Write a sequence for this structure.
């Protein structure tokens, strides 16, 4: 969701989450490592707070690079927000069906990457599930389930294959009347990747960009193998000794699940994550952390794997190049279970 305003990967990042507790274990890192100094910045963006951690020799260079990165994030918000009525995405949503619409490179890549993940997950990730998402946002606010008619229409209007892309002409065509796109399930990861790329253009490679729970990590901090990330799922905040730590660099990392964002309706607990197949929030208490070559991929896959469930989700992760995944879920009697794809344990730090 936007605001109103690229088998275990050699990764390094911090995770956050709707279902993770992002714990940057940087306090043990010396403020000076050679000539490099650590600099930290944060700024509200895309309905969340983006945080930048970087190492640079000069404070002026660091500030200039961070400012350019934040400007890139805001430019993407202006492009792909579904809240801003004049955003490029809003204009595309208002455009007639069956008409090729020329779009910016950013919007084209966002839609193209989304289509790839939709195909990879058999529609568990679907940017056309907009009506279902809108109904579910309203249901959470009003504490009332959508009507059967609303849900049926939302399902009927969900069809990622109804979005036609022409790479040569850089156009997007909506093949169904009334089709709407929502890029909230992939936008923050894409923005984090883009911001990290800006930092690299300024000569800063030892950096990390975190947007809510979607993280793009560059080279490791000086003297470290990577960024120490504490994954949070269903543990209580005080149970820090139970948290799993991973050491990551040059990758994207995202976690999705219903740790905090849920609602109880008619005696049933629903996640904020909408299943495109049912038009309703998930009812399983499940969280999934995905580590991929880039944050765009990890962002899209994290939600999709929760929708697919443990067995199907792990199969998708195993087939996705450079990707590992970890599921944590609670059984009906409250027992915590964990399963991981091959390669995930290679990133886990010993306690």
């Amino acid at each position: 969701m936007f605001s109103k305003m690229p088998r275990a990967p050699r990764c390094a990042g911090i995770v956050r989450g709707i279902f993770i507790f992002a714990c940057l274990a940087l306090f043990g890192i010396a403020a000076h490592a050679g000539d490099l100094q650590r600099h930290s910045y944060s700024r509200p963006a895309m309905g969340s707070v983006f945080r930048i951690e970087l190492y640079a020799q000069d404070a002026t260079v660091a500030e200039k690079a961070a400012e350019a990165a934040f400007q890139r994030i805001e430019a993407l918000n202006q492009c792909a927000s579904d809240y801003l009525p004049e955003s490029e995405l809003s204009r595309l949503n208002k455009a007639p069906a069956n008409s090729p619409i020329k779009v910016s490179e950013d919007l084209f890549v966002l839609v193209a990457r989304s289509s790839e993940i939709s195909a990879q997950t058999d529609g568990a990730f679907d940017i056309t599930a907009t009506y279902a998402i809108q109904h579910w946002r309203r249901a959470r606010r009003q504490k009332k389930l959508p009507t059967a008619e609303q849900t049926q229409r939302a399902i009927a209007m969900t069809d990622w294959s109804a979005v036609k892309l022409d790479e040569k002409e850089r156009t997007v065509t909506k093949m169904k009347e009334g089709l709407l796109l929502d890029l909230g399930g992939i936008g923050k990861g894409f923005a984090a990747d883009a911001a990290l790329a800006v930092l690299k253009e300024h000569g800063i490679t030892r950096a990390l960009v975190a947007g809510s729970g979607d993280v793009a990590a560059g080279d490791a901090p000086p003297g470290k193998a990577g960024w120490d990330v504490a994954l949070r799922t269903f543990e209580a905040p005080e149970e820090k000794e139970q948290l799993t730590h991973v050491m990551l660099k040059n990758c994207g990392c995202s976690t999705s699940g219903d740790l905090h964002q849920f609602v109880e309706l008619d005696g049933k607990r629903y996640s904020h994550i909408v299943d495109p197949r049912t038009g309703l929030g998930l009812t399983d208490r499940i969280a999934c952390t995905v580590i991929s070559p880039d944050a765009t991929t990890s962002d899209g896959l994290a939600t999709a794997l929760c929708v697919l469930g443990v067995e199907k989700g792990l199969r998708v992760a195993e087939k996705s190049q450079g990707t590992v995944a970890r599921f944590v879920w609670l059984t009906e009697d409250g027992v915590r279970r964990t399963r991981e794809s091959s390669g995930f344990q290679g990133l886990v730090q010993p306690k």
In short: Residues 59-80 form the longest helix (22 residues).
